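Section 5.1 Outputs to date
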Amino acid sequence: MKKILTLLIIAFPLLANAQYNFKKGSLTLPDHEKIQGSIDLREGQLNPTIVNFQAADGSIKQYTPETCLSYDIEGYEKYESYKIPITLSKIKVIELSNGIDTSTKTEAIFLRLLSEGKNVKLYSYRDNLKMRFFIKEAKDAVPYELIRQIYLSAGSNGIAETKKTYLKQLSDLISKYAANESKNIERVGYYQKEIAKVVQVINGAGNQEVTVVNKAPGSRFFAGVGLNVNKLDFVAAQSPGKKIPNDAVFAPTLAVGIDFLINPAIGRLIFRTEASAYTSDHSIDAYNEDEIYPRAHHSFKQASFVISPQFLYNFYNTQKLKVYGTAGFALHLSKFSSISTESLTPGFQPMRTEGGNNLSLRELLIAYPISAGVCLNNKFQLYLGYTAPVSVTGGVANYKINVARYKLGVNYLFGRAN
């Protein structure tokens, strides 16, 4: 099973790179011709630099800000392209300039349309440097940036200061288009929600925010069943490189949990919290160094409750089929019972010890599971899982018992998600 999981993990990046997420949309060319088709909706916080467009005949063509005036993914996103100056001042504390950095560069970019009205349009643009907001007045051909500059001033002893030019820009727009409105903007932060409220005042009743219509839920519940295959190894301190294998133990498991979709419109990256429970009966032979016959035979029953936070990533992501992997950690809370040890005396006579006086077991441990699986029709997940060996013994120095877990399971997803 480990080999299968390894092969799947190697194949995941190939699946991710080859996959599109097309949604119905339209694209406007430089000659103002509007073409209908499907547009690749990508996950990520940065504004796109290219857009993949699929025509009715299935052919795919890439467009850039130089070859596309605008595009609209119906119910999701709208972008317009402009060749404009953008500021280059940094915002990370360790990268702040001494004094105000007024440097800019001019390039063609895709701006995401946030809201529009009779007077102005509001856009956002995020690249690897920072988030920026732009305003385009109805009379103007191109938008301009709402400027915020964070810097270290002389004599500030390393304390950052902020020049909020955007407040003056917004104030001028209110005076120009909504002089009768009283709006105190001195405390308006450089955030989408706060700036959008000011733009709503500027545009008045005709303002329209560009919202996501086809918004999938941001969370969903799931329930599942599975089969744990627990493989125990005995390792003696006298011969740490020698592992004594024992028969695998099969343990049915039940699971419930909740998924939080990082970007519900796409549903590629998910934070999952899972709770599961299982019971199992274990028996294991213990050897001393180079012995042919076991020195002792341990047995115990285990009931465990497991909490596992993890990240799930859909490397291949379509409505009908998803191929995914998960990784995280698992907190095992266990209760042990029926602990007994059968040992051999120096004369090789059996001696049974009830209560496990010679066996110390950990009721709390942390493990690190991974899994790979497929999701069918956004409802059923089939997966294989593996947890690296972890010691279930504690407080002893002369031996340890390691358990590796393999898991085969199925989950049912409740609710709608992309």
